[in-house]
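Reading is simple: each integer encodes one residue's backbone shape. The lines below illustrate:
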Amino acid sequence: MTSFDGQTILITGAATGIGRATARKLADLGARLVIVDLDGDGAVAAAASLPGDARGYRCDVRSDADVDALRAVVLAECGGVDVLVNNAAKPPVTGPLADTDIEVWRDALDVNVLGYVRMIRAFLPHMVARGTGRIVNTASGLALLPDPPTRFMGPYIASKGAQLAMSYAFAHALEDTGVTLSVFCPGLTATSDRPGGPPPAGVGAPTLDDFRRGVPARRARPATADHAAQTFVDGLLSGEFLTCSQEGYHSDLVDFASANLDPYSIVRQAQAEAA
């Protein structure tokens, strides 16, 4: 009997990348997976690739109607959700901050923050009624350690920081309900759809060298999606509040705090390590 036998785990944004790799590991541990993605065909295909009972559904987490419909079908067909993993995200790279359209900022917040809130509001009441459940919000290692490439990722990093702060609030709010909440912060990860770097460069788009500049060497090496997924599952099993797949992030956080959270301290650290 594994820790996930008989449990229903819903993961958004799980048709590809870390979400799909995580679904595979949890299915292998006996969980029943509900794969949710804006790409409905991809969600169905991902579910079909898993062992055991797995289902795939299309849902746009920006849509109240879509989330309400998803809740209704999941409760009807699965009887509820034991673990909700909020993993859906907008693509991180948007280019120079001053040139990023306000709609891009709005869309990132609608998916990465309000989309998470919609999903929590949809599935939390059933968890509280049962007195048990787990919610996981996927933020980012960059929300902990804001490396220089964040200058090309304003909407993404703003939303990931909001996710982390929001998770603190929900964790306090859920005290004594039987429902727990945790955060997963993946580091730089090579996935099949985004192999460890920015998308193909267009006119004025940042290059791979732009992304590496000022980043400590160990944080510029992408891990595999399998590594990130295993780190996530290990954190879920251990009950940690925050799990991060970035190598050495504990000591890096101490250094960052000692520098009064000065983002330029990261550049100085990278320069010192390269000297």
Observations:
- The first helix runs from residue 17 to 28.
- The chain has one domain: 8-249.
- The two ends are 52 Å apart (CA to CA).
